[in-house]
Amino acid sequence: MAKLLALSLSFCFLLFSSCFALREQSQQNECQLERINALEPDNRIESEGGLIETWNPNNRQFRCARVALSRATLQRNALRRPYYSNAPQEIYIQQGNGYFGMVFPGCPETHEEPQQSEQGEGRRYRDSHQKVNRFREGDIIAVPTGIAFWMYNDQDTPVIAISLTDTGSSNNQLDQMPRRFYLAGNQEQEFLRYQHQQGGKQEQDNDGNNIFSGFKRDFLEDAFNVNRHIVDRLQGRNEDEEKGAIVKVKGGLSIIAPPERQARHERGSRQEEDEDEKEERQPSHHKSRRDEDEDDKEKRHSQKGQSRRQGDNGLEETVCTAKLRANIGSSPSPDIYNPQAGRIKTVTSLDLPVLRWLKLSAEHGSLHKNAMFVPHYNLNANSVIYALKGRARLQVVNCNGNTVFDGELEAGRALTVPQNYAVAAKSLSERFTYVAFKTDDRASIARLAGTSSVIDDLPLDVVAATFNMQRNEARQLKSNNPFKFLVPPRQSEMRASA
Amino acid sequence: MAKLLALSLSFCFLLFSSCFALREQSQQNECQLERINALEPDNRIESEGGLIETWNPNNRQFRCARVALSRATLQRNALRRPYYSNAPQEIYIQQGNGYFGMVFPGCPETHEEPQQSEQGEGRRYRDSHQKVNRFREGDIIAVPTGIAFWMYNDQDTPVIAISLTDTGSSNNQLDQMPRRFYLAGNQEQEFLRYQHQQGGKQEQDNDGNNIFSGFKRDFLEDAFNVNRHIVDRLQGRNEDEEKGAIVKVKGGLSIIAPPERQARHERGSRQEEDEDEKEERQPSHHKSRRDEDEDDKEKRHSQKGQSRRQGDNGLEETVCTAKLRANIGSSPSPDIYNPQAGRIKTVTSLDLPVLRWLKLSAEHGSLHKNAMFVPHYNLNANSVIYALKGRARLQVVNCNGNTVFDGELEAGRALTVPQNYAVAAKSLSERFTYVAFKTDDRASIARLAGTSSVIDDLPLDVVAATFNMQRNEARQLKSNNPFKFLVPPRQSEMRASA
Amino acid sequence: MAKLLALSLSFCFLLFSSCFALREQSQQNECQLERINALEPDNRIESEGGLIETWNPNNRQFRCARVALSRATLQRNALRRPYYSNAPQEIYIQQGNGYFGMVFPGCPETHEEPQQSEQGEGRRYRDSHQKVNRFREGDIIAVPTGIAFWMYNDQDTPVIAISLTDTGSSNNQLDQMPRRFYLAGNQEQEFLRYQHQQGGKQEQDNDGNNIFSGFKRDFLEDAFNVNRHIVDRLQGRNEDEEKGAIVKVKGGLSIIAPPERQARHERGSRQEEDEDEKEERQPSHHKSRRDEDEDDKEKRHSQKGQSRRQGDNGLEETVCTAKLRANIGSSPSPDIYNPQAGRIKTVTSLDLPVLRWLKLSAEHGSLHKNAMFVPHYNLNANSVIYALKGRARLQVVNCNGNTVFDGELEAGRALTVPQNYAVAAKSLSERFTYVAFKTDDRASIARLAGTSSVIDDLPLDVVAATFNMQRNEARQLKSNNPFKFLVPPRQSEMRASA
């Protein structure tokens, strides 16, 4: 990781223009936090097919970091209806597998039904749509500002997805409030209740709450060239019951997707991950029906040819075919690994270039019992740590040397560590795992203890004079801990027994 | 335009560092707009040679979008005195033709009087100055932060220029207030009256209001090495009468500019536009006197040689010779065109690279009676729509599904459509034309209806499940409207008669 | 400088993405300054080895410019203990010489002790650390956000260092308050007293104020694998007396640095400066002991080989070996020079690329008695002028033509000139010298008088019409002052005697 950091910093320097944090600042004094808390979601909205839980974005630690956090749970065959946000989102898949899609305006519809449709209705209509992606546990999904996003759980295991919305991003030209613009339904967008001075709700005469609800019927009838009945559906009127943001799909969705490889996705070996990546770079356009394999193969060839032609202008292969996810969950190829202490894997814009657009990155960590993440700070980013499994003791210190947090972070809770605040962690469980969302696409940390830490990188005499100690004491500070990031429990136990 | 958007998005991705919106955010809750209004200017300042009208920048919709709007009218032979602003400006020429100039510090004075001056006074003094440009109806002019700008109407038709000042730009390091720094005159800068807690006006003892007024006389006498009488003129003292920001030039300005092509400018055929562009890329240095054609031709040749030499270092040809205007008025080569519905033309930083510096772009649209612009939203920009001709019905919807505007926008009024808010329009006049200023240099829109819209790009089954409808209904939503942007009136009439 | 500006502007245009000011904006109305003052530091914190003086960052002119200013004085053998900030810093060395270091996480420890250590303690321990740099009077030192920085005075002359912290930088993701995170000691960070609603201090039970103080002892014992006594030192407990941010090093620091060239540093001829630069580009790893020259030479060779290998990947040679200082003090090669008037030298990201990361630049000027800097404004930056020697009369004018400052600026005081405000200066001393910190890495100025000024670059007829004057008067305005930046006193004296 030292290498990785050097690489990250250096790259940043080479490319210059990309290394400035492009986020906005917090309001005056917003970050004079004397206490930070490990927070659970404080609101819960049930839907037909699952639920969405939110953390109050007006909580001071989120206001300082200028982010909003939420957690969605999708039951089997549940679809999170398409929506877009006024700020970029980073979504971590805590559990489950499924499909997701994003609509990039202007990109081609590369997934097409084969010539011979078997559907009874619409013999001549062949559906086509933009790329659909598969996600699995441990994935980070990057959703740019204003891009419509949906996801779907086609498995038995409920999908749990943690989403960080970076309202402090300069891609958000509105105010600090996180906003969801739903394409359908009549549910309230999940952050609405946190708006100050909202109050305009009462006077509204439309039934729905989606972006079509506010248009007059005749506008939509003209725009879609459909009848009033369909427009009512569009506007979320007369919805049989309150379905909410996550709906149940009877019989499941039939999605045009390549057939064979799906099964493998769930195992998650490194080899498969590589295959994932290969797959994602090669546009593939296959219907997920087992009996169409032959058609598929032909189709794949012809369409690859087409995509190569599209690629000739050097343009469509970029955003339209960009990779939108990366797996950082208990990866077989962690960036930092110590068999006695744990593992850490990060995703930055070097791994997933779309993150450069979002100015976000993420880190997944797993610590063995009593193993420790040495005191460190984020140079250029705020960090929101969400505990996935187990619990750990964390300490966070501000610029005045005050302890702003000293407590347990347990699964399901989130803790904000503002930029430059020092933090350390020790696992209290057999396996403490977390994901940290970071508000820079090349978030860097500086370690304060261990080999190649800030202390170790200072001249011996400077350390001795700085801490008013003898040289041999300074030498101990610099070199007694031979580990870089994660200190194995033995280390601490040895000390305790000394 | 789908192509165009794809291109825009993809390019953005290729160049990465340039696709982050670099604007600032609005203050907390500034954008919780429950009502937006179509606004007329609310203030009017008469000048000797014309008038300047302003919209109150403290109006909530402008505070949310962080822009200021104004409209200047210049009579024949009127000169808008040079001024600069603390934020980038995009000016649309609603009517008229004339000259404009900007002073780029450090750029050479490339327009020179010929050797044999015929002016009585100053036989040996040969004037030289930086490039002067011609503008015509339909032009967008890009004025960077801090660059002194002037314009002049040499025709009979009054010039009407709409200016958007993007105070939310990160090029503005001061606060949100739009500021004009006048180089001359004693008129109040047009946005001064909107300043809160200003009040300092009374205690001032200087007569003028320009940037020289505040200096002591001796400083200016030394700095310019001129006498007190000239300094008084400089400071706007003893100005015979209150002339204001726009002055009348007796006998007209004599400007060093190439002679022949001017006449053609006013016709506006595509061919001429191309010539415009060619012309602008070739520095030309000619006096606008018809009798100097022969001198001119020689001069042009010698100076082109010089300019090629300058170009050798690869530097001066950039900002010093950058194109500062582009025509988007009822263009013969629109980006979107439907003979029954209308046309749209945009200018982004791909067409006019200087816009990348300003982080602004613009769109000009023209709709036939009852033609419709389908519901859509701006992905990455706020938009200020100014109606040029006719009137239309517009609807704007926020993230809660509330109608924040449902009314008429008529010529001369402006409407702000915040980022991500959905909007649709239907023309109520034979020809409704508008210009939309957008706060990103590659503003992208996402259409919500019609071919290749967000709905159309979703899988059929996702549409059906999302809107809780049958597949054949979803198919209608996806495919019934075969148009992409503009829906011809026939379409709507057909529906009405059905 | 006209060339320089053209070059700067043009380059900016070529590289596009780098020319947007990436700073944040001031709060609403924060910049409606009717009066600016020349300010002295208003607080003073004594340390064992020197003192730190601060200007109140809540002063309106600093709040508008979004910067914080401080001044550190280090006595002989004084070490400023390592600290990092939540915003980039530009430090100007007003007086003295010494060493400084920064720790870049992930960069290698390139300075190593030779094999045969002569230190009694730790025969086998060979110290190594990151690069150490020498500074001298007139240097600008660039300290990125979050990077730990220390400095040390090894000479008799006290070191005086002026530091601008750009809290408005988008690299600062916290609020506007400047923050120092000390690695050691129990002193209060110097800007703490300016925090509003702080008050949390009382309830703290830890003795120290550094970033280790807030961790529990057991965490640090584990993280460093050291005993409680050393941890107490680390946390700043039991410090014999209050030493403060600057400590005295008994017997002086022994730093691993190349031996011979140091002495020359203090003379400061251009030739030496060039050598400085060469030196800095060649990593050199030598102990500063005169008797090790032979060892050194061999070592240098072997290590250069290594560094070349590192360079092969094109990465480590960038941020890890980046130049972090440039000399702009009374330089023998000024950018602007007039033997009768004075000299000006600037440093931008073109000279010192790391400044592109910080988005800051600086200017050093020296004016002879009665020489004048013509009225001008900063196009794209706020400027904080700190007077180093002598005194001058300055005038600053805002957009309403009001004089916001007309007074003396004397050595030791600072004056903020906001973006686009006009400013002019006349020296009242034999030699008035200043340093101006600017909040853009390619800060450009536009001159309002003299050759190639904004006025001179306008067409003659535009000048005449703008200022309502005769052509021959306009000609005088354009051409009477033949100087570009600095007007020699003769000029003004001639006028006075006229």
Give the CA-CA distance, first to last residue of chain A.
31 Å
User: What does the overall shape of chain A look like?
Assistant: elongated
State mean pLDDT of chain A (0 to 100 scale): 81
Low-confidence stretches of chain A: 1-22, 197-206, 262-317
CATH class of the largest domain in chain A: Mainly Beta
* Rg over alpha carbons of chain A: 25 Å
Oligomer: homotrimer
Count of the domains of chain A? 2
CATH superfamily of the largest domain in chain A: Jelly Rolls
Protein name (chains A, B, C): Legumin type B
InterPro entries (chains A, B, C): 11S_seedstore_CS, 11S_seedstore_pln, Cupin_1, RmlC-like_jellyroll, RmlC_Cupin_sf, Seed_Storage-Functional
Keywords (chains A, B, C): Disulfide bond, Seed storage protein, Signal, Storage protein
Organism (chains A, B, C): Vicia sativa
Topology at a glance:
Three copies of one chain form a homotrimer.
Chain A: H1 2-15, E1 43-47, E2 50-54, H2 60-65, E3 68-74, E4 78-85, E5 89-95, E6 98-103, E7 111-112, E8 128-129, E9 132-135, E10 139-143, E11 148-152, E12 159-165, E13 180-182, H3 217-224, H4 228-234, E14 246-248, H5 262-265, H6 270-281, H7 293-311, E15 325-327, E16 336-338, E17 342-347, H8 354-358, E18 361-368, E19 372-378, E20 383-389, E21 391-397, E22 403-410, E23 414-417, E24 422-427, E25 431-438, E26 445-447, H9 454-457, H10 460-466, H11 471-479, E27 486-487, H12 489-497
Antiparallel strand pairs in A: 1-2, 2-3, 3-12, 4-11, 4-13, 4-14, 5-10, 5-12, 6-9, 6-11, 7-8, 10-15, 16-17, 17-18, 18-25, 19-24, 19-26, 19-27, 20-23, 20-25, 21-22, 21-24
Helix pairs in contact in A: 10-11
